[in-house]
Amino acid sequence: MKEALFLNPVFQDRIWGGTQLHDYFGYNIPSDKTGEDWAISAHPNGPSTVKNGEFAGKTLIELWSEHPELFGNPKDPVFPLLTKILDANTDLSVQVHPDDAYAKVHENGELGKTECWYIIDCEKDAELIYGHHAQSKEEFIKMVENGEWDKLLRKVKIAPGEFYYVPSGTIHALGTGTLVLETQQSSDTTYRVYDYDRKDADGNTRELHLEKAIDVTTIPHHDAKLDIQVEKRDGATVTTFVSNDFFSVYKWDIDGNAAFKATAPYTLVSILDGNATLYIDQVATPVQKGDHFILPNEVQSWSLDGTITAIVSTP
């Protein structure tokens, strides 16, 4: 039967995590330091399992290797995308990620990490670190060595509904009081540059990765140029945030009945608000805030009837 693959969340405790994944989405979280929901993941550090249908209980890793037809028989050795929801109850460490070429050599063949953020919700004066002010590698190193963080780091005020594209090489960090959906390459490689001298539960400061961070940071910083497109159609407004070699990311604002056709071998959908009915071949399935699912290759058309906001990605 043609159907969506609904996925169970995988929660990750983080030093900066909180309770928003429960408070906002109603998830049954493991602790009051729950920082991440790996919502659609085939990464070995937190693979999703299928909730429904003939593949119930299978991990996304198993599906990718055993049933490539679900994904259009891809050439990628690993499922290339990872969808997360992050609860930054306090500031995240200042960090940077490598590109594919650097990660392949230095991280045992792991993918690089280009990512992007959709701000679901945030406190009134919330901000994030996006880029830096150093004009040369020498200046960057000097500011890091001297701990001139206020001078080095570029802070940006944020608001719900905004979108930020974070290519590999970009210095970045989410700030306190931010709830974000992150679409990224399927990678868990992070180089910490600064962590506010915090100590973990055992009283240890967390490891920094300055040498690798200096290797991969884009200097000077330049903002990624985005060409955001908005298309209004029957029952839906579709916003295209970004479309490149790594992923395409869209927002669906649906109010009424909206029909869709597949534009990629498979489609990842995260419902951020509201509820609706998903129709595939006239079979109805309810979807609601907090649901995450994949529309596999055999599902070439579908419709949604209701009122929802969703973030959607394709490879």
Automatic annotation (TrEMBL):
Among its keywords, does the record have Metal-binding?
A: yes
> What is the top-level taxon of the source organism?
Bacteria
For the ligand (Zn(2+)), the binding residues are 97, 115, 172
Q: Which cofactor does it need?
A: Zn(2+)
Q: What is written in the cofactor note of this entry?
A: Binds 1 zinc ion per subunit.
What is annotated as the active site?
192
Against Pfam families, the record matches this protein to: MPI_cupin_dom (PF21621), PMI_typeI_cat (PF20511)
- Specify the Phosphomannose isomerase type I catalytic domain's residue ranges: 6-105
Q: Which GO terms describe its biological process?
A: carbohydrate metabolic process
Q: What is the reaction catalyzed?
A: D-mannose 6-phosphate = D-fructose 6-phosphate
Q: Which UniProt keywords apply?
A: Isomerase, Metal-binding, Zinc
Q: Which SUPFAM superfamilies match?
A: RmlC-like cupins
| Protein's recorded name | Mannose-6-phosphate isomerase
